[in-house]
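Late entry, evening session. Most of the bench is empty. Finally got around to the prediction I had been postponing all week. Sequence below, unchanged from the version circulated by S.P.
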Amino acid sequence: MEKASVLVVEDDHAMLVALKDILETAGFQVRTATHGEAALELFRKERPELILSDIAMPGMDGIMLYEAVRDLPGGKETPFVFLTARGAREDVFAGRSLGVDDYITKPISSHELLTTVRARLRRSNELMVEQLKTAYKLSLLMLAGGIEARDQYTHKHVMRLNAYSNAMAKELGWPEPRLEALEFGAILHDIGKLDIRTSILTKREPLSADEWKEMRRHTEYGAFMIKRIEYLAPALPIVLYHHEAWDGSGYPEGLKGDEIPEEARLLSVVDSFDAMTSDRPYRLALGPSRAYEEIKSRAGTQFDPKMVEVFIRCWEQGRIRKIMDELRDDVEEKVALVGARELH
């Protein structure tokens, strides 16, 4: 942050020099302009990370500069702070009503200046990270759509899986970073199917031993695909181990009990529930209550008993039913691809 670029716009030369010295001493890269037109030209060329501008300037004043910057590419995302001798309430209101990020009045101490600049840059960075996360998630959802296009048994499987798993994780009190890793795991759990032959994914007859062996490798393929992406690293155990079973009968490694990562144990429950309550070309979906009883009956064999208990609580609270109602597949939306394979 200390090497961030700041554009200071001030028509008072002595004040401009003082502001520049304070910011540069603190490690910021500073460009200066004495009027709005020059500042606007600098912004077009260099895109500073923050603008600190006086309001009362000849020609294009600070408010006009603010409005012009907001109309330029990247202008809406750049923090803009008014620095002015005006302290009247109407001036403060005018600046803030435009949406300016902050408003500080001269005289100002170096401590106040640096605190304000750092706070606005920090907030800007936080917003940028959130925007990147949102864009990343949308990209991953598009990728998940590509997976479903090859092995589609329900239009909204990933959306429901994410909602079910989120409900259970919140019931467990998991913190936000863990919820985020679980979300990525839910979106990407079957990404490895992109590397499975279409003839296997669409085969209507029972798979041969060799074909079933290849199908089971989708968890390993998926883990390999994301292992070099640092941001997705927390989701890797979910992708790799969501088909492991509590009694050791699952795959790919036959892990047993607490050897299986907790997130994968959670996803296994809701993935199975959604599979059971979704229509397939070769069988109709189980009713929700029947699928619920199936989940309960497999506690201690296929599923972690603790995770089944959490699922039961979510069921009894009505959260599972609510998700099913909100994200159900309408009849006209269902795609009955001949030979779509069941996930389990």
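Two things to note before I forget:
The chain has 15 helices and five strands.
Confidence is low (pLDDT under 50) at residues 330-344.
Will write this up properly tomorrow.
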